[in-house]
Amino acid sequence: MFENLRILDTTLRDGEQTPGVLITSNEKLKIALKLDELGVDVIEAGSAITSKDEQKSIKTITENNLNAEICSFARPVKIDIDTAIGCEVDSIHLVIPSSDLHIEQKLRKTRDQVEEMAVNATEYAKSHGLIVELSTEDATRTSVEDLKHLYTKCIDAGADRICACDTIGLLTPEKAYEFYGQLSELNMPLSVHCHNDFGLAVANTLAALRAGATQAHVTINGLGERAGNASCEELIMAIESLYKEETHIKTELFYETSQLVERISGVTLQTNKAIVGANAFAHESGIHADGVLKNTDTYEPMKPEKVGHRRRFILGKHVGKHVISEKIKETNTEVTDDELNRIFERVKRLSDMGKTVTDVDLQAITDDILSINPEDSLILQEYTTVSGNKVTPTASVKVNINNRERIEAGVGVGPVDAAIEAIRKSIVDTADITLEEYHVDAITGGTDALIDVLVKLKHEDKIITSRSTEPDIIMASVEAYLKGVNKILTDKKRR
Predict the structure, then answer these.
(1) How far apart are CA 120 and CA 461, in angstroms?
(2) What is the domain extent for residue 127?
(3) pLDDT, tens digit, 9 for 90 and up, residues 78-122
(4) What count of other Cβ atoms lies within 10 Å of the Cβ of residue 145?
(5) Distance of alpha carbon 354 from the chain centroid
(6) Is residue 60 located within the same domain as residue 138?
(7) Separation between Cα atoms, residue 165 and residue 194, nearest integer Å
(8) How far is residue 374's CA from residue 383's CA, in Å, rounded to a whole number?
(9) CATH number of residue 157's parent domain
(10) What residues have CB less than 8 Å from 247, skipping those under 6 apart?
(11) pTM for the full model?
(12) In a domain, 277, yes or no
């Protein structure tokens, strides 16, 4: 059914028509090189008539002698075709409106005039050695009889391929099958060009190919005007995974190609975008993640490696303890059941606060839990801080030190300084400890990032280093200080 499938990628033309997208000459070449490596048959490099810069971009691509056929969009007018010829393209995508609405309201012409333009343009392009793909705009709102009449005239004039465009995405899969099936009766190479206004571009393209179309117009990431075009990666993987038919596309390059186009276009992919989205192979649910760990087929329709992606386990509120255990084992870290329970509780607490815990966060949490000594002498029971632009930063703490409760208060240049001062006062008669160094880092980006605090404390002639990781900078600072103090107190006991 898809044995002779050809792919025309129009990321650099229809994709660039996405509002707000502007791709430079060098960037177009980078994308074209990647599309050629991917294995697409035709690269629509742009519309040569658009500007001098566009001509430079297309010429740069044609000069690289890619394996793919290089194509330029053209209207059925001599200047468009001459400009494309000047860029040394292999073919033109000759587009002409075909519906009554477009012919009468946009062009202000008759159908006979439009057909004459199409035939003349086809003959002119063919006389200059170009491959011609004749494409009818708004074809799905044109009668099949009118389309066949136009196509037949242009085929007689030398057109190599014909294409019917669902310009505003009005087809359904059932209508697409019937529509392209009728056009395939012309026995000419037939292209399908679908837009995604109702989210059906890929489904309609599949139906058209099943009905007899032999070439699909697509873009990477489904980029394109309004809701975009049929997505290359979704179409190909549907053919390979659902219809079980091989294509000549190097699917393992899809993810990096997608990332390249996303970076250059500036159009951020939705995280749940099929095939190449960040969450396409991500698992959070405890049941799902546990199943994938046992057999990936349980909750994955394909291997992520098939498209150059990778599997991820998201540590959110639905995560199971088994997944956390497996993630910790991947780092060659051993934890006890009690430590695993505390790590699990910390992850759940952070998730309830709305934070997704990354692998880096998990490592920091694990290190933090493993540094806790159950025999600590100094235990924080509660703390309170007050701070503001017209309030002296003040903190109060209640601690238990060697089974004695102490309550102290302190002031400082900020809430962290005040909290540490309050704790220092609570232990001043137990040990003389000086804060030598204080360092803070955000583990990951964002205002909800876990905060990693490292402190160096001096007692007598020794320097003790300790750290803590929490989403709250004050709590992280207090815990880091407490851990350091406890190390000192434990050392004193052993002497």
Answers:
(1) 94
(2) 6-265
(3) 999 999 999 999 999 999 999 999 999 999 999 999 999 999 999
(4) 9
(5) 21
(6) yes
(7) 6
(8) 20
(9) 3.20.20.70
(10) 2, 5, 7, 236, 239, 240
(11) 0.73
(12) no
